[in-house]
Design goal:
Helix content: 40-55%
Structural class: alpha/beta
Number of strands: 13
Number of domains: 2
Shape: globular
Largest sheet: 7 strands, mixed
Bound molecules: pyridoxal-5'-phosphate
CATH topology of the largest domain: Aspartate Aminotransferase, domain 2
Length: about 450
């Protein structure tokens, strides 16, 4: 450890909390908390010095690449093969599918042009269509629901659990009816939905489970990768995701027939086994350029995921020493999480009633940009009526059926989360340093101490 001649207070302020804590007392965290509070300046929002200067980003820039990634891309470019559809060994897309299937521990991976395309492909493979209902959740990216609507079926939105912010599995069964065909739980933010409960409900009602793991790369449920627990799993490799290729996606699974149907849908209905055009089809193919980028990024994913695990564990340890901002509760079967959007719970009672939006504003000025959680309550989004007013929907669904849907389409807990308690940090924050984690907590303490002045 590097020796320092700094005074005690400065030492606490400027060094790793772990080190400072160990040096100061058996209960180092509490001591850090106290010292940090004593040392604290007024909030940057009120003219004080920010915890982090504006130009110092929290965590890492994204995406991360080096010359070897550029080389992989150039090789694809110079090959003169700019589109691949033969599904043969030497193709980049084929190779990348194999790599991702191995990483996920499944037999099959079907690469797609996007995560949205992956979700549509998976639902196509199990023949979801007009008149069907698919249970999903309200706090997800709109694409989860669009992919169902685009097949002229209806997504049914389930409310969130107030502590885990995940789909509330207790509310699923009451929304199952004779039209329900599938459940699409979303491992939202990268944390795991309660897959034990969901699989049991699906079994009881003979439903298909398609996991939306678009935000959950490398997360695990009982040591199996998220996306591989249900019948099929869908991933996004869009630029911001923890594994990315600009745009891109994948469906993974073990069922030979379903995965052949999925592959077929991405390429004009062709069965990848015998090339016969026997399935419904479209063109959702991944390009060799996307595959080249992805194969470069896959090399780093375990190391990056481990760093995120470590930083998140450290942040959680620090947060354990304060009140008012805490991590969301984990479903017990989650053995690892993804970090696309790490969700936290804000409790304004510990900030003298300071609203979440004002807290976020103050934190932003400190150089800690908390997001507003997942911040989507799809059940109340106008896009539902856009689809319902579509000519085909009017033809397929009676007014009575749609009116009943509207009456049942309520998710008050998630609205409360959006409004009052949901906070988030993006995956790239956890690619930073321990000091980054400490700065987050220091800034929270600073705002908490000064909350009266910020009201
Ligand atoms: C939960 C979820 N589902 C689906 C998607 C769609 O993925 P893509 O943007 O690659 O189409 C995303 C992407 O943001 C997502 O977060």
């Amino acid at each position: 450890m590097k020796k320092t001649s700094l005074g005690r207070r400065k030492f606490v302020r400027n060094t790793s909390l772990g080190v400072a804590g160990a040096a100061l007392s058996a209960n180092g965290m509490k001591l850090f908390y106290t010292n940090a509070v004593q040392d604290i300046d007024k909030p940057a929002l009120l003219g004080g010095t920010p915890v982090r200067p504006k130009d110092r980003i929290l965590g890492s820039s994204w995406p991360i690449y080096d010359d070897s990634d550029i080389q992989l891309y150039l090789e694809a470019f110079k090959s003169n093969i700019w589109s691949e559809y033969s599904h043969i060994e030497r193709e980049r897309v084929f190779q990348t599918e194999k790599k991702y299937a191995a990483l996920m521990g499944v037999n099959y991976c079907v690469a797609t042009s996007s995560g949205t395309a992956a979700l549509e492909t998976a639902q196509r493979a199990v023949d979801i269509g007009p008149g069907d209902e698919v249970i999903t959740q309200t706090n997800t990216f709109i694409a989860t629901a669009l992919s169902t609507f685009n097949l002229f079926a209806i997504p049914v939105f389930i409310d969130s659990d107030p502590e885990s912010f995940m789909i509330n599995a207790d509310l699923i069964e009451e929304r199952i009816n004779e039209n329900t065909r599938a459940i699409i739980p979303v491992h939202i933010g990268g944390a795991a939905a309660d897959m034990d409960r969901i699989m049991a409900i699906a079994k009881k009602h003979n439903l298909i489970v398609i996991e939306d793991a678009c935000q959950a790369h490398m997360g695990e449920w009982r040591n199996k990768k998220l996306g591989t627990v249900g019948d099929m799993g869908c991933f996004s490799f869009q630029a911001g995701k923890s594994l990315c290729s600009g745009e891109g996606g994948a469906v993974v699974g073990n069922d030979e027939y379903l995965m052949a149907a999925a592959k077929g849908y991405t390429h004009i209905g062709k069965d990848p086994r015998n090339k016969g055009r026997v399935f419904t089809g479209s063109n959702f193919r991944m390009t060799p350029f996307q595959a080249a980028i992805l194969s470069g990024q896959i090399r780093r994913i375990e190391e990056q995921s481990t760093l995120r695990d470590e930083n998140a564990a450290y942040l959680e340890k620090l947060l354990g020493e304060i009140k008012g901002v805490r991590p969301t509760k984990k479903n017990p079967g989650q053995t690892r999480r993804g970090y696309y959007i790490y969700q936290l719970i804000y409790d304004k009672e510990y900030f003298r009633g300071l609203s979440k939006s004002r807290f976020r504003e103050a934190m932003r000025e400190e150089g800690i940009p908390f997001g507003n959680g997942i911040d989507s309550s799809l059940h109340s989004d106008p896009f539902i009526e856009t689809y319902f007013s579509h000519r085909a929907f009017k033809k397929i669904y009676s007014k009575e059926r749609l009116d009943r849907y509207r009456r049942e389409n309520l998710c008050p807990v998630n609205e409360m989360i959006d409004r009052e308690t949901g906070l988030s940090l993006g995956q790239r924050v956890f690619l930073g340093t321990k000091k980054d984690m400490e700065d987050i907590v220091t800034a929270i303490i600073k705002i908490q101490k000064n909350s009266s002045a910020l009201l």
